[in-house]
Amino acid sequence: MDPKAFFKLSYGLYIISTENEGKQAGCIANTFNQVTSSPAQVSVTLNKNNATEQMIEKSGKFAVAVLEQSATMELIGRFGFHCSRDLDKFSGLDCGIDEQGLPFVKEHAASRFSCKVVKTVDLGTHVMFIAEVAGCEVLDNEPVMTYEYYHQVKNGKTPKNAPSYQEEPKKAGGWRCLLCGYVYEGEILPPDFICPICSAPASAFEKIEN
Q1: What are the pLDDT digits (tens) for 75-124?
Q2: 205: domain CATH number?
Q3: Considering its fold, how many domains does the chain have in total?
Q4: Is the pTM of this model over 0.70?
Q5: TM spans, by residue (predicted)?
Q6: CA gap 145, 15 in Å, rounded
Q7: Measuring CA to CA, which residue among 168, 167, 173, 200 is closest to residue 188?
């Protein structure tokens, strides 16, 4: 079985967000899909260890921002490689509030959805939320980001909690980011180096032994 076959499936890249009891959470996902048209229903699958997943379990609702190709790696890194328990991911960003009172990211977003959970499916390591669309709108007409574009053009990595994560072979030499897995090739890591994927500082890198 060739696991790379899964990379040929068509995915988008989305920011999933929610709010409960005054706290906000958000993460990157590539598993948001439309499942029915009447009524309009969608699904998203998230890892059980994800803070956003756990908050959606409590709130029963979530918002989705469909990312454009112009989305920066800093934005993707903020929502994809940090935990909402440790970081206010929405601070300083251009955000809106949807029909259910949920925050959604407007920066580099082509459209957005407000979703009310109607069913959950336990998938072992992950949970699938099936939701009715309470509201949606087009925000911009720029090309949307596909998962293939993210990997091939942006040179992006896949978080370990993602359903499509596959462990990459270790490279000889260099330094590996402990947050997102990015590898800096070189014997000496500059002390002021910033990870281009998740914006982690040099102190978050470990030496890869030959």
Answers
A1: 988 898 888 998 899 999 999 999 999 999 999 999 999 999 999 999 99
A2: 2.20.28.10
A3: 2
A4: yes
A5: none
A6: 12
A7: 173
On whether the CB atoms of residues 39 and 105 are closer than 8 A, the answer is no
Q: Which of 11, 157, 10 is nearest to 73 (CA)?
A: 157
The token duo for 136 is 């949606």
Q: 169 is written with which tokens?
A: 């072979």
Contacts of the segment 33-39: beta carbons below 8 A, 24+ positions apart: 35/130, 39/132, 39/133
Domain limits for position 58: 11-152
- Asked whether the beta carbons of 182 and 157 are under 8 A apart, the reply is yes
> For residue 199, which amino acid is it?
S
Q: Coil, strand, or helix at residue 160?
A: coil
- What the block records as the tokens of 156 is 């992006």
